[in-house]
Design brief:
Distance between the termini: 70 Å
Structural class: mainly alpha
């Protein structure tokens, strides 16, 4: 059960409204790095959490906090739109509001679909669809996903911070960036509490590792052609992070043979030539300007 407070989680003010910045803020709402994504990710991880209840409750708390971030950003979008510059307002008075929206730099759908408000969409107007909401049921896999989500979200917020000179928007973004700092630490702390890399890798650690092909479990495959230098690093030599093997470099070579597929099924309606041509008859004539090539 959720409860709400009518007050914002943190003050949101816009000193110099900008329809263009309202459009940019949409990425922080409905983009793949945005607050809808992390909110749903943490909530769905919580909804399906099994094991110690403290992890379920922590995820629920943070997912609920992210709802407040969505509200803050949506408020910022609306304030940037409703107080748009005099030039944009004059244009709106003279012409179709949609035209004014385009000239002002905002997404036309912020007017057409939302009545001068935020959308559940990214900066290109693409609706959020949940394809980047990761809730695997494995606590460590989810924590690593959460770290990545907060890292990309923080990078986005830092870029937005540099894109505006508005003191109110910078103040709001300082708060959001600070919360991303905490959430990155929070998820990494869970992994540390569970034993860190060595106790948790490979993920899932509940699979009997003797059942995998251990001969390649800690090999770095070098796929460059002859003469290409292998990128050397911690991953090419020395003990593995889980302490169960040694990293080594192996030149990538094919372990299998060339794939051989059955002829096309007649019910699939491939071309007759596909169904009847033998292996030897594979030449194709390509017409180019001025010559013929086989």
């Amino acid at each position: 059960m959720f409860y709400h407070d009518n007050k914002l989680q943190y003050p949101v003010r816009v000193d110099t409204p900008s329809p263009l910045f309202a459009k940019m803020l949409q990425q922080a709402i409905g983009g793949v790095e945005g607050e809808i994504r992390v909110c749903l990710q943490y909530l769905f991880q919580s909804f399906g959490a099994r094991g110690p209840a403290r992890y379920r409750d922590m995820l629920m708390d943070t997912g609920t906090e992210e709802l407040g971030h969505i509200q803050m950003l949506a408020t910022a979008v609306a304030l940037n739109l409703e107080g748009s510059s005099a030039a944009v307002q004059e244009e709106a008075a003279r012409a179709n509001p949609m035209v004014a929206a385009v000239l002002g730099g905002m997404d036309p759908r912020q007017y057409l679909s939302a009545g001068m408000a935020a959308l559940a969409a990214d900066a290109d107007g693409v609706p959020f669809n949940g394809s980047h909401v990761y809730a695997s049921g494995n606590i460590v896999a989810d924590m690593y996903s959460n770290v990545a989500a907060e890292a990309t979200g923080r990078a986005l917020a830092c870029r937005l911070f540099d894109m505006t000179d508005d003191p109110g928007m910078k103040d709001m973004l300082r708060y959001l960036i600070a919360r991303d700092t905490m959430h990155q630490q929070q998820w990494l702390t869970v992994i540390e509490e569970l034993g860190g890399h060595q106790a948790n890798l490979p993920i899932p650690n509940s699979f009997d590792q003797s059942q995998e092909l251990l001969d390649v479990s800690y090999d770095f495959f070098a796929t460059g052609i002859d003469g290409t230098e292998t990128p050397a690093g911690r991953w090419t030599s020395g003990p593995s992070l889980d302490g169960k093997g040694e990293y080594r470099v192996r030149r990538a070579v094919p372990f299998g043979d060339e794939p051989k597929l059955a002829p096309p099924s007649p019910s699939g309606y491939a071309q007759r030539q596909q169904m009847t041509a033998d292996e030897a008859d594979t030449s194709v004539t390509v017409m180019t300007t001025g010559d013929t090539q086989s």
